[in-house]
Amino acid sequence: MNIQTFSPIISDTLRAATPLILAALGELVTEKSGVLNLGVEGMMLIGAVAGFIVTVVTGNIYLGLLIALISGIAIALIHAVLTITIGANQVATGLALTIFASGLSAFVGADYVGKTITGLQQMNKSIPLLNQDLVVYLSIILVILVSWFLRKTRLGLVLRSVGESPSAADALGLPVVKVRYECGNVWWGNGWGSRICYLSLAYTPLWAENMTAGRGWIAIALVVFATWKPIIILLGAYLFGGVSAIQLIVQGLGFDISPYLLSALPYLATIVVLVIISRDATRIQLVAPASLGEPFRPTH
């Protein structure tokens, strides 16, 4: 194999990893605030269908990206109200949100199934390995920014404090509910992370029912795999993206393997990773936000 063989494989790995990076980063920030959101899969679907429909109607892909962000904030706000204000069970709420969003996206996007658009244009066409669209580069920049935000800024310290002990943070006068709303769900967390609708506007510029195909669940697993560290999320996403792209290598070498089995490789890899991680439960407990999934009632 030469560079001409590996170039499209590496390119596809970067593209396949991008939606996982965006979704996992959003979930990471959300979980750092102590809120567990299992609705990432459904939220990705809402962002994908909203962005795609607006792009088809207006012909402006950047307006589609904007509407996808707004729709993401709206559905993240629903999760925030239910889990933070009302105090509903976070696991049940996230699952219900995924089921609701899956049905809603299928209903709203029914008339757009099979339609295609001109996706985000790739850059640096003269350099094959750098011939990626803007969002691929943006995902890498976001990893660096989120890492810096969590480790080097006062707001990042406040966010981590809220996630570790909301009662202690509240006693110190920190606005726990506000932090969980703004950083955990609406602005910094899942409100933007899962909503760039990269799948329907760039990776496969079309709409198909349930097109996320479990990527939201992989993103949640990726956060645990990365032990809540943005840089490891980047590496882990590229690992999963590489597993997705490996089917190209296998098919290119002429192996007679079912394409359905090859398509299942990323999900098999997810199961293997979760099994390996679960063997060291103590380490996970040490690195996970201490109040993850626990409701908080302000005392004043």
TrEMBL record:
Keywords, in A-Z order: Cell membrane, Membrane, Transmembrane, Transmembrane helix
Topology term for the membrane: Multi-pass membrane protein
Residues that span the membrane, as ranges: 35-55, 61-82, 94-114, 134-150, 217-240, 260-277
Annotated Gene Ontology cellular component terms: plasma membrane
UniProt-listed CDD domains: TM_PBP1_transp_TpRbsC_like (cd06580)
Cellular localization per UniProt: Cell membrane
Recorded GO MF terms: transmembrane transporter activity
Primary location recorded for the protein, binned into one broad class: membrane
Any Pfam family: BPD_transp_2
PANTHER family in the cross-refs: ABC TRANSPORTER PERMEASE PROTEIN, SUGAR ABC TRANSPORTER INTEGRAL MEMBRANE PROTEIN-RELATED
Name assigned to this protein: ABC transporter permease
Organism name: Hassallia byssoidea VB512170
